[in-house]
Amino acid sequence: MGFLNSLLLTIMRGLHAVINNYAITIIIFTVLIKLVVMPLNLKSRKSTMRMTAVQPKMQALQEKYKDDQEKLNQKMQELYRKEGVSPLGGCLPMIISMFILFAMFYAMRTFANEQLVTQFLTFYHNPTIDPATLTDSFLWIKNLWMPDSPFATYMPDVQSLQLVDFDVWNSVSANLVASGVIPEALNFADRNAMMAYITDVVTPFIASDAYAPYVAPVTGLGNLSILGLIRFTIYEHGNGWFILPILSVLTQIFMQNMTMAQTMAANPQAGSQKTMLYVMTFMSLYFCAIYNSAFALYWVISNVYALVEHIAFDKYFKSQERKAATAEEVGI
Fold it and tell me: How many CA atoms lie within 13 A of 45 on its CB side?
């Protein structure tokens, strides 16, 4: 995973150096990743179609050897070899997608942490700057590195900065010194030193007149709760409208509805895949709601691409079937 994480980071940094826009970089990068794994998806789709075609034979074997499990397993394996299919053939792209998803989670976290520290330190040492010039916006989202939500501030708050590793503070501040943005680099020895800095420097500055307006809650809506269990705050300068989390769920549902029938037809016993799809839907809402908008954008674009690819594969295979049927009619 370490190699994959580093590779994705390197590619994204290279793309951004050319494009100079993080949102467009993420969109292009997502499409490129999907194009790379498309041959695997195509192979998986073919495997799924072959599994569907042999279902009648599999059901016949299950009926014939229903009282002899050992014999049934043997005959099923023989059928798989004869037909050149595998019940796990459709799982490989899903596993690869999971690895890429986790690697992207790491990459987006790394980018977000670097950008949040850059934004805070730049504004801390230059409080007359318009903070909107420090953030990376995208359509309705003011800052890609904070969640797309009215329940999140668009400027870094204490909670988001506390989650950044101390070595990120050190490296980012060193780069800012080299660029002439801030006068002195930070040199935290460990996390305890970083937390002391946040307590003594970051928290008071965020509470100051220069910064507080950008993290202030809407009057009267500062501490809402649902049944006293879930607490949230609506901010005056919220970072978005919760659109990406909603889109992530909708696209996930559309995608799983399109693929579920096909998967279950090929392998009616694939209950674990069905469960995983529902888990992924919940994960999409959870991560896209609490994590940075850049990762949510990646997730949505990834789902949209998967939907388009699924439709394109359908048309391709139907075209192949028509050609085969025509060839058979003319005796080819």
Answer: 19
Domain boundaries in the chain? 2-117+242-326
Copy the structure tokens of residue 179: 């660029």
277: Cα separation from own chain's centroid: 15
**d(C-alpha 57, C-alpha 294), whole Å:** 47
Helix (H) or strand (E) holding 251: helix 243-266
Give residue 281's region: left, alpha or beta (phi > 0; psi -120 to 50). Answer: alpha
Residues 6+ apart with CB under 8 A from 165: 113, 191
At 125, the amino acid letter reads: H
Left (φ > 0), alpha (ψ -120 to 50) or beta: where does 224 sit?
beta
Q: 258-309: per-residue pLDDT in tens? A: 776 555 554 555 555 567 677 778 888 888 998 899 999 999 999 999 899 9
Instruction: Collect all residues with Cβ–Cβ distance below 8 Å to 27 and sequence separation of at least 6.
Output: 297, 301
Q: Are 226 and 151 within 8 A, CB to CB? A: no
Cβ atoms < 10 Å from Cβ of 318: 10
Contact predicate 104/295, CB 8 Å: yes
The 8 Å CB, 24+ separation contacts for 57-64 are 57/83
The C-alpha atoms of residue 193 and residue 186 are separated, in whole angstroms, by 10
Can you list the positions of beta strands (E) in the chain? 224-226, 230-232
The whole-angstrom distance between residue 276's C-alpha and the CA centroid of its chain comes to: 16
pLDDT of residue 155: 95
